[in-house]
Automatic annotation (TrEMBL):
Key words, A-Z: Immunity, Immunoglobulin domain, MHC I, Secreted, Signal
Record's subcellular location: Secreted
Protein name (database record): Beta-2-microglobulin
Signal peptide: 1-18
One protein family per Pfam: C1-set
Alphabetized PROSITE patterns for the sequence: IG_LIKE, IG_MHC
Organism encoding this protein: Gasterosteus aculeatus aculeatus (three-spined stickleback)
SMART domains listed in its UniProt record: IGc1
Length: 117
């Protein structure tokens, strides 16, 4: 019971202290393995430091959403900034562009994967 009450108070505090602060997400797009054409890999979009917690992340191949992407649970740090990771299996092919579309407080930005190949 004590723990429950504590969690509730902490929740309230976080609501109260964070209401009017907006911070834009920092986004990193990378792959699990070095990029290699025709080789199965995992595309990862790591989004940190954003507030409020509502966010939409899409992984794109040639500007089309890649279905079946998985998202981690929303997590937060001591500063009440949130972070999330979204990932999907993919196989890069010559000419393909992979990117991450992050929409936060109504603003969408595209971050493109730099394959280093
Ligand atoms: C990015 O996501 C936003 C919100 O869903 C959408 O309106 C926009 O068309 C998307 N951009 C691309 C290139 O898919």
């Amino acid at each position: 019971m004590k723990i429950l009450v504590c969690a509730f108070v902490v929740g309230l505090l976080s609501l109260a202290s964070s209401q009017d602060k907006t911070s834009s997400p920092k986004v990193e797009v990378y792959s699990k393995l070095p990029g290699e054409y025709g080789k199965v890999n995992t595309l990862i979009c790591h989004v940190t430091d954003f507030h409020p917690p509502e966010i939409k992340i899409e992984l794109l191949r040639n500007r089309q959403a890649i279905p079946g992407a998985m998202q981690t649970d929303l997590a937060f740090e001591a500063s009440w900034h949130y972070h999330l990771t979204k990932h999907v299996p993919f196989t890069p092919q010559p000419g393909d562009t992979f990117s991450c579309n992050v929409t936060h407080v109504g603003i969408s930005k595209i971050y493109t994967w730099e394959p280093d190949m």
